Input
Amino acid sequence: MRIRATVAAVSGALALSALAVPAAQAAGDQRDPAATLKALHQAASGRSALTGATTYASGTPYALDATFSSVKINNGKPIVVGTTNKVTVPVTFKVTHSADIDVKAPDTEIDLLIYRGSSSAPANVLWGDKYPACTATSATVATCKGTVDIRPRDELWNADATGWKAVGYVIDWNDQYGADEDVIDWSKVGYAEADGIATTKLQRYSKLTVNAAPEPVKKGKTITVTGKLSRANWDDGKYHGYSTQSVKLQFRKKNSSTYTTVKTIKTSTTGALKTTVKASADGYFRYTFAGTSTTPAVTAAGDFVDVK
Output
């Protein structure tokens, strides 16, 4: 289990609150890049990362010559998350840096996080289980591949179904790697940070069902088509009906490959769907939902009706 960050205000920098020690000190997979950034921000502002008081370690970090570009999260697609399963999405980016930065050195740290809210007071922060793997393509350019790993039970709330921003950083620890925070010579630590370098969207996984009855049915008789539209609720870890949403009822004849929209109806306050049609021919009924900014599109598998 990773240590996750909670929120605290740090003026002028991404404010990520947790045990503020260099990530190199984290045991096993308990890495916390958010805490690393907080430590650097507070050292740069002349305060102790642990106490918020005037720093008792020496110096302040110096600026590295490094920039981020070509940032892509989940191949540019929204991140869709259910209620239980861990979701891992790819992250790729390029770092252009001065020739004196060795991206493969053990005390060089490169990472990318996503957060929502403001950079001065983020509401939530997410990152990958492991650091991105970076490959030097020249003396001054590296391409990096990583992940963002999301555990909805522990890390998400319904408010997180919105837009997120990415922040990237490069740190050269210069032999301060792993030192206790209160004895770090921050003047030997270099870092560069780039905020708002990409955006992504988190969405709540959706489900849609359909049932057409009776079956078989005589031609000209009434068919009742029911179903339900639901989506992940990250507050309680369950699926709840998605109310008052427009959903299309579609029909495909038995020997056709094309669905045609019959009508559009809205879900009830519990996400339920119910409408009637006249039986005309053998075929498949399905519901389809176009999606919203917080919830992805979803289409139910067709339900076959035998018309006599």
In short: The CA atoms of residues 44 and 60 lie 5 Å apart. The chain is about 5% helix and 45% strand. The first helix runs from residue 33 to 44. Helices lie at 33-44, 152-155.
